[in-house]
Amino acid sequence: MAKKRVFYTELCYVLALLIMAFAAAFTAKANFGMSMVVAPAYILHLKISEYLPFFSFGVAEYVFQALLLVVTVIIMKRFKWYYLFSFITAFLYGNLLDAAIFIISPLPQQSLLIRMVYFVLGTVLCSFSVALFFKTYISPEAYELIVKELSNKAKTDINRVKTIYDISSVVLSVALSFLFFGFGVFKGVGIGTVLCAVINGYLIGRFTKLLNRRFFFKDKFNLEKYFS
User: Fold this and answer.
1) Each residue's pLDDT tens digit, 177-219
2) C-alpha–C-alpha distance, residues 51 and 41, integer Å
3) CA-CA distance, 178 to 225, in Å (whole number)?
């Protein structure tokens, strides 16, 4: 058996942010529907940017996640200072997302086959980035944080809470799409949303097993106590 290499968890965090940004950028360019997690922010971007051009997908992401953190504080009835780090993660991700969208903007989009390639690439990159996030102690985005906090408060299985959150996110996305663009109009939600919901969990599990086989994960800096 090959010796495992050291993979620092702080590096996992940086790579996860970068990869996730390009994952969302490629998924948006494919235009088959965003994942259920980011769809509400994407729909807000589509509508608000009609009036405020600076309200990019990246800006919508960290604004929406800030709202999620407010909801988390209300539900938990207390503010935990590491929630701030979750917003910092969202802010960094949002800016990287806008940069990624700019970088891939010259790529062609007309062909259905090319769009399918973008969707597959975005889905695979998204799953891999989540697997990397699982290996770091640094505060995740608000999407993951609210699920974790609600699970702890309710003292119930996190997967059950995640399922409820994902379903709620899809319902919210459809409601926002109908509200902003007319009943029966699906913006940001489509076949790609369904496919992501079906295969993301499987892909994340496969990437996690692959990472565990190849690497030994270790903290470079002893900062974990500040993120819990």
Assistant:
1) 999 998 888 888 888 888 887 787 788 888 888 888 888 888 8
2) 16
3) 44
Strand pairing category for 215-218 and 5-8:
parallel
**Which two structure tokens, joined as six digits, stand for 149?**
């906090």
Tens-place pLDDT, residues 113-168: 999 999 999 999 988 998 888 888 888 888 878 887 888 788 877 667 777 888 88
Whether residue 224 lies inside any domain: the answer is no
Q: What share of the chain is helix, strand, coil (3-state, %, to 5)?
A: 70, 5, 25
State which amino acid sits at residue 83: Y
Q: By residue range, what is the domain housing residue 168?
A: 14-219
- 31 part of a folded domain: yes
In a domain, 53, yes or no: yes
d(CA 100, CA 105): 8
CB atoms within 10 A of CB 135: 20
Tokens representing 130 are 């989540």
Our count of domains for the chain comes to 1
Domain contains 6: no
pTM: 0.86
